[in-house]
Amino acid sequence: MKTVKRHFAWLLILVLSFSLIGCTQEPIEETSMVVEGADSEETQAVEVNTESTGSSLEEQVAAYFENMPEHIYKMSQKDFVEMVAAGTDATILDIRSAADYEASHIKGAVNAPWGGMAIADIMTKIPMDQPVYLYCVSGQTAGQAVHTLNLAGFDARSINLGFKFGISKVEGVDQVLTTEATTLTEDITVIDPIVKKAIDAYYGGLAAVKDTRFASYKVSEDELNAMMEADEDFVLLSVRSEKDYLLGHIEGAINLPFGKEMAAGFADLPKDKTVVVYCYSGQTAGQTVAAMRLLGIDAVSLNGGMGVGSNAPIGWTNKGYTTVSEVISEKVTAYFENMPEHIYKISQADFVELVKADTDATILDIRSASDYEASHVKGAVNAPWGGTAIAEILTKLPMDKPLYVYCVSGQTAGQTVNLLNLAGFDARSVNLGFKFGISKVEGVDEVLTNEATVLTEDISVIDPTIQAAITKYYAGLSSVSESIFANYKISEDNLKQLIADGEDFVLLSARSAKDYALGHIEGAINMPFGKDMAAGFASLPKDKPVVVYCYSGQTAGQAVAAMRLVGINAVSLNGGMGVGSNAPIGWTNKGFEVVQ
């Protein structure tokens, strides 16, 4: 009955339209769309003439964003599986290949494979009076398709992370899977002719890019990297949140956050060059690409987006490519340029005297919990290195007093002191740590205890971007814990082996130019630790390890933390070059050779 009424309504509109044409003095210009052939690898965007008596295509695309619901045209994989299990009345589209569909698909799903006209052709067979849910392999092409479906008038949502990374991972999914096909054969829905023509051209254009690097209106992570290395002329657009963009983005990217106001920014984008769009996993970038292409912008989305844990191994960061952060970069630069004479360190003797004098300060012991329990400096709070404990305690540390941090040898405290200062604390690390420094000071016993001090109240506010970067830094320790770069360090023996094996890495001495000339590890370049150091980071590669060493490992620790925050895969040499007071660790303390 609803279909009969809908057809009758369209008939009435057509009759009225012909009556108006007979009366008007101005002819109605026919909407036209041209898809140019692909003569090269560059994709050809849809060109649209949207002058009509109704809403233009541009207005309808804008409305898609302006009227965006909270669910942003997506549904979680878990909610989707539960909905199917409950037998909710809905239309489900599986836009994976016919082979994938035949192997296994969601019960009731209709197959309209991506890559040709199948999705455009099936729209007239989909009912308008119930929601439409669609999924692909990873969520990315479904992102494109969901935009076209909503533009056509459907209440459509794509399933988060698609079948492979989302649906198939849901507990209990087997109960809603089948190999039995569902088909739609009857034309029951009328699509706005302007929109239908645009959608037909959109899907028709896939054939023109099928054998190019922009197949499916996407680009692979490796191809994007190659484009960047070749310095090709294109626009790189992040549609992630402003906060996440500031925290880290692909170098050269501009930001236009996905959301209600997004379409207003499309006018600023060029139509004479490719626009590569990326989000988190590729799904909202897919929606964005579809909208842009319908407006004549030659847009493609980055495969897997920035990359999230759940869509590994696809995505930029999951592939091991680096990101940059303006906020972090500025903080890192300022850390060095504003370096005080004490270079963010305090001598072990001065530190012990400070504790004896009961100076008002916060003390952080980042050794293991067992070391802390055995003996620690009075008043010290334990936040063990190796997990996210240090990141988690930041809000509990007061900003209005100096902060002193120590570890075993001074090296991981060196990393930590950089991060603490970036977070806004007046922090210094204790020279040579507890084992080689503090415990050797005469009279130290009177400032030692095994009575714990704890901090429980949140009293400080950390810049969210900085907090996120620091949390990410410490969380990353787990990914290297079983490697030769555990703790973002490398042992003397492992470095010696890397050199012997001719491995491709950079060896960097952060000692003074004078001391470098007197003797350095063979193959090392020199970048002295100090106020001008950050300026040299731009000359370091981001696609290979950078092993940094200083005297005892402590200032190298600071340098490593700073480098890693700006995307350099840096680690410090255990014990540095080696000094008498930190024997037996350190390169020369191990008896290894240096050259002049």
Quickly name the level 1 CATH class of the largest domain.
Alpha Beta
The overall pLDDT, averaged over residues, is: 91
Alpha-carbon Rg, integer: 30 Å
Enter the CATH topology name of the largest domain.
Oxidized Rhodanese, domain 1
Overall tally of domains = 4
Shape: elongated
Could you give the count of β-strands? 26
Helicity range of the residues? Answer: 25-40%
Largest sheet: 5 strands, parallel
Total helical elements: 23
Based on helices, strands and strand pairing, what is the structural class? alpha/beta
Spatial ordering of strands, largest sheet: 3-8-7-4-6
Q: What's the architecture of the largest domain in CATH terms?
A: 3-Layer(aba) Sandwich
End-to-end C-alpha gap:
91 Å
The CATH H-level homologous superfamily of the largest domain: Rhodanese-like domain
Tell me the fraction of residues in β-strands, as a range: 5-15%
